[in-house]
Design a protein that fits this description.
Pemi-like Protein 1, Chain: D; two-stranded antiparallel ribbon; 2 strands; elongated
């Protein structure tokens, strides 16, 4: 595996899947001797940021009860 000129490297799919690293997941780096450890950032706000990005995006005037009745058929 090579480091790009921008300092980037691709984390193999199997590792991303095992650790649940999705696009936009924040990670932390730690130097351990001569190695670098990468892990999910503690207290990551990915879920909160996702919800905030969707807030106010709805275009329908249905009530919550109406939406639930449509989805539960």
């Amino acid at each position: 595996m090579r480091l790009t000129s921008k300092g980037q490297v691709t984390i193999p799919l199997a590792i991303r899947e095992r650790l649940g690293l999705m696009p936009q997941t924040e990670v932390e780096f730690e130097i351990v001797g001569e190695a670098v450890k990468v892990r999910k950032a503690r207290g990551s706000r990915r879920g909160r940021a996702l919800v905030e990005s969707l807030r106010g995006q709805g275009s329908t005037k249905l009530t919550t009860d109406q939406i639930l009745s449509l989805t539960r058929g």
